[in-house]
């Protein structure tokens, strides 16, 4: 499913975050919070990650003529960064679908940066040097030193939704969010606020200079066809007659 990310500058769609779902015939919709840790434990996260990447890139390729600036955010597990094949796989995937590196924003958590493994560092620097955008997910919830910020070219900090939800009710949270936005901007990094649910949170974040907003206020994560219909993107088999595809 795809959740829109809105630019506060244009009030328009900036991009979409791809989120995994497991529709189970008996158990219903299983949350990724349940099955991602399992996939990691069972050694299946590489395959799952590869499949998400493939589906996301195929989808973005279908949308790119109508929305050439759309950025797709993809979550990567820390375990994927231990795999020396990660970079070649991502390259091959965007090439197969005719995409450029800047069209993907790769979301990692600070946990990735705390592991001092050579493969992790080399995967990260290779991806950044190739022009992929790097986003730090759940920013503010980890235990990581900030020293990586000037060292790695981080494009985006995604402010964890616990901060967004404490805005307007908690003074300390408000101070933290204001400081994170300032810190990011001083370093040339954009800020996306996650979990925006109320117009009050939106108004506060806009006046504080936050760059992008994501949350149920705008939309829940949507299946690709619903996402496409909501944002005037091509939907398979619904092209107006007289305009052949391709
Ligand atoms: P995340 O990357 O922090 O994704 C944001 C989560 O917040 C999503 O949960 C999204 O549905 C939810 N969310 C969005 N807006 C709001 C809001 O306004 N209020 C509230 N309460 N929640 C909101 P979801 O889809 O259940 O995903 C949970 C986590 O599972 C993700 O957290 C991410 O860490 C992981 N995940 C999802 N898809 C993938 C994937 O393809 N690969 C990997 N490695 N992890 C994934
Ligand atoms: Ca994420
Ligand atoms: Ca997050």
Architecture blueprint of SSEs:
Blueprint lengths: L1 E6 L5 E6 L3 E3 L3 E3 L1 H10 L3 H19 L7 E5 L10 H11 L7 E6 H5 L3 H12 L3 E7 L8 H4 L4 E4 L1 H6 L4 H16 L3 E4 L5 H9 L4 E2 L10 H7 L16
Parallel strand pairs: 2-5, 5-6, 6-7, 7-8, 8-9, 9-10
Antiparallel strand pairs: 1-2, 1-10, 3-4
Helix pairs in contact: 2-3
This protein binds ligand C2E and calcium ion (CA) (2 copies).
Task: Provide a quick synopsis of the model.
The chain is 40% helix and 19% strand. It has 10 helices and 10 strands.
Structure overview:
The model has no long low-confidence stretch (mean pLDDT 93). The protein has helices spanning 32-41, 45-63, 86-96, 110-114, 118-129, 148-151, 161-166, 171-186, 199-207, 224-230, and strands at 2-7, 13-18, 22-24, 28-30, 71-75, 104-109, 133-139, 156-159, 190-193, 212-213. Strands 1-2-5-6-7-8-9-10 form an 8-stranded mixed beta barrel. It has a two-stranded antiparallel ribbon with strand order 3-4. α3 links the parallel β5 (71-75) and β6. The chain is 40% helix and 19% strand. The protein is built from 10 helices and 10 strands. It has a domain at 2-151 and 218-230: EAL domain (TIM Barrel, Alpha-Beta Barrel). By secondary structure, it is an alpha/beta fold. Residues 3, 19-20, 31-33, 36, 49, 52, 75-77, 137-138, 161, 194-197, 215-216, 221 line the site of ligand C2E. One calcium ion is lined by residues 137-138, 158, 160, 194.
């Amino acid at each position: 499913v795809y959740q829109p990310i809105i630019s506060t500058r244009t009030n328009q769609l900036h991009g979409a975050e791809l989120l995994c779902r497991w529709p189970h015939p008996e158990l219903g919709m299983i949350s990724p919070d349940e099955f991602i840790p399992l996939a990691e434990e069972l050694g299946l996260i590489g395959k799952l990650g590869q499949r998400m990447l493939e589906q996301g890139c195929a989808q973005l390729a279908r949308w790119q003529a109508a929305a050439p600036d759309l950025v797709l955010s993809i979550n990567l597990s820390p375990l994927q960064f231990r795999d020396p094949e990660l970079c070649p796989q991502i390259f091959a995937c965007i090439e197969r679908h005719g995409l450029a590196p800047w069209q993907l924003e790769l979301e990692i958590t600070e946990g990735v940066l705390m592991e001092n493994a050579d493969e992790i560092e080399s995967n990260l620097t290779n991806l950044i040097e190739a022009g992929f955008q790097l986003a730090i997910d759940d920013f503010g919830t980890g235990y990581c030193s900030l020293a990586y910020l000037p060292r790695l070219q981080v494009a985006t900090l995604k402010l964890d939704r616990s901060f967004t939800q404490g805005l307007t009710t908690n003074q300390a949270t408000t101070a933290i969010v204001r400081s994170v936005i300032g810190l990011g901007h001083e370093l040339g990094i954009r800020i996306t606020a996650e979990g925006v649910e109320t117009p009050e949170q939106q108004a506060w974040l806009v006046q504080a200079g936050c760059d992008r907003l994501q949350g149920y206020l705008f939309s829940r994560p949507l299946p690709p066809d619903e996402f496409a219909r909501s944002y005037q993107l091509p939907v398979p088999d619904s092209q107006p007659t007289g305009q052949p595809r391709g």
